[in-house]
Design brief:
The complex is a heterodimer. Chain A is mainly alpha-helical. In chain A, 78% of the residues lie in helices and 0% in strands. Chain A is built from 10 helices and no strands. Classes of the chains: A mainly alpha, B alpha/beta.
Chain lengths: 245, 243
Amino acid sequence: MSPRLTLLTAARILRQLRHDKRTIAMIIVIPTVLLTLLRYLFEDQPLIFDRIGLVMLGVFPLVIMFLLTSVAMLRERTSGTLERLLTTPIGKADILFGYGLAFAVAAAVQGVIASVLAYWLLGLDTLGAQWLVIVIAIANAVLGVALGLFFSAFANSEFQAVQFMPAVILPQVLLCGLFTPRAAMATWLQAISDVFPMSYAVEALQEVGANVDPTGRMWRDVAIILGCVIVALAAGAATLRRRTA
Amino acid sequence: MEHAVEVRNLVVRRGTNDVLRGLSCTIAKGAVTGLLGPSGSGKTTLMRCIVGVQKIRSGTVEVFGEPAGSRNLRRRMGYMTQAPSVYADLTVRENARYFASLYGIGAAKADAAVSDVGLATAAGQLVSTLSGGQRARASLACALVSQPELLVLDEPTVGQDPVLRNELWDRFRALAAAGTTLIVSSHVMDEASRCDRLLLIRAGDLIADDSPAAVRQAAGTDDLDEAFLRLVLARDEEKAGAH
C-alpha cells in the first residue's frame, strides 16, 4: 500500500464529487430535513427527540454513505476504469482506502452540519459533550462508507447494489436497540445484534446521551466501530480481483 | 529481432466456450503489431491476457521476459480498453493528470498527452459532455501519459474522422520509431497496411501472422479485406478436408 497513491485517489474522488453539485446538496440536505421532521413529530415530547434524534444522527449518515459508496464503487467497476487502474502501479488497498478517505471527508461535512443543526436549531439535549456526538456521528458515517464499499463487491448492477441497503442496513436498524432495548430482546436476537456493527454505533451515542463524562463503554464502542471500518475496507480490497473472466 | 511479448499455447475459456484455443505468437519490440479479426474473434481477450487482467485456463504469456501482469510490468505498460475507460464526471485534463500521477508523472506531461490526441481545446470539459470520438481520445491520452514501453490499444481509432485517424496513426508510427512496442486492434483493414506485422484472429485461432505485404502475397490480392476473406475461406476448406 502507498499513502501517496491512496491520497491521490481520494483527491480524484473528491474532485468527481465536486463536479456533481446535486449530490453534494443531497448529502447535506437529506439528514437535516429528516432530523427536522423528527423534531416536529415529537414537538411536545422533547425527551423523545433527545433519545431518537440522537440515535438518528448516527443512523442517517450511515445509511446515506452506504448507498453512495456502494454505487460509486460499482461505477468504478462497470465503467472499465477499475480494470485500467489494475494495469497501473496502484494497489488494490490504495483504491479501497482512497474511496474510504474521500467519502470520510464527505461524511465529516455531513456529520458536522447535521449535528450543528440538531443542537442549535432543533434543541437536541445530551448529558455528554456535543463534540463527542459529532465525532461518533462521523465515525458512523465512515462505517457506512466501509460497509458500502465491501458489499458493492457482491453486486453486478445498480439494481443489486441498492438492494443491499435493505438487506444489510435495515436488519441492523431493527436490532440496534432503538425499537427495543437490546437487553430485552430474545437471546438469539441479542446474539445477532451483538455481531452487527450498528449496535455499537447506537450504543456509543446513547452513552454520550446518558452520561456527563465519556464512559469506558463508549470508547470501547468507538474502537469496535473503527475496527469494523478497517476490516471492511481490507476485506473489500481482498475481494477485488485483478484477473477476471 | 527481440520479442516484447511471447504467447504460448494460450487457452481462455468463458463458460463452456473457448475464446482462445491454444494460441501462440510473438510480438516484436519497437514495432506496430495489428490485431485484426471480426468482432468476437478474441482480440480483446488476447489483449487482456497481455496486460494481465484476464483469467487464463492454460498456456503462458510473457511480457519483456516476465509473466504478464507482474507488478514490475505495470509501470512499463499502457492499456486502452475498447469502451473509453475514463471518469465521465472529471474533465479531460483531470483524468490525464490523475492517471499520470499514479506513475509519479507531473501535470505538464499529462497536459501534453491531452494535446497530443488533439483535445487541447476540450481539456477543461467534463468527459460526459464529449462526443464518442473525443471520449475515446481522452481514454487514449490516459494510456499515453506514462510514456510506456508497451502500449496495448483496443480499437483506438473507432469513431474518429479520417483526418484524425491519420494523425493518430502518424503518432503511433512515431512512437514505434522511438522504440515503443504497440499492439493495436482494429477491424478496419485500411489501418492494417500501416502496421509492421499483422495477426489475423478468427474464432480464437490465429490464421495469419505476417507482414501486410506477405499477407497480401499469400492471399494473392492487394486488397487486405479480400486477403483476409481468402485466408479464412482457405482455412475453412482445410478444416473441412481434414474431417
